[in-house]
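TICKET: design request
STATUS: open
ATTACHED STRUCTURE:
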């Protein structure tokens, strides 16, 4: 499995594009579990599930069991 993309094109760039051009968000929540998610997790203070790779866990603001737990914790 391989992804070939232009330099600087990644999930963080995609979320940034949505933030700029779709706008109006009160909050942006991101969750990822692998190396290609690290920049997005770091930039948006995101979460990772407990099974995430080491680099993703190090970048995370919070580690959760799954996406549902993350969403529930944010809605309190």
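STATUS: resolved
RESOLUTION: sequence designed for all positions
ATTACHED SEQUENCE:
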């Amino acid at each position: 499995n391989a992804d070939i993309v232009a330099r600087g094109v990644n999930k963080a760039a995609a979320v940034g594009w949505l933030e700029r051009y779709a706008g109006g968000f009160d909050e942006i929540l991101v969750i990822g579990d692998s190396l290609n998610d690290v920049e997005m997790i770091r930039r948006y203070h995101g979460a990772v599930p407990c099974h995430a790779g080491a680099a993703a866990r190090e970048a995370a603001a919070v580690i959760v069991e799954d996406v549902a737990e993350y969403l529930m914790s944010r809605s309190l």
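CLOSING REMARK: Residues 11-21 form the longest helix (11 residues). DSSP finds four helices and two strands in the chain.
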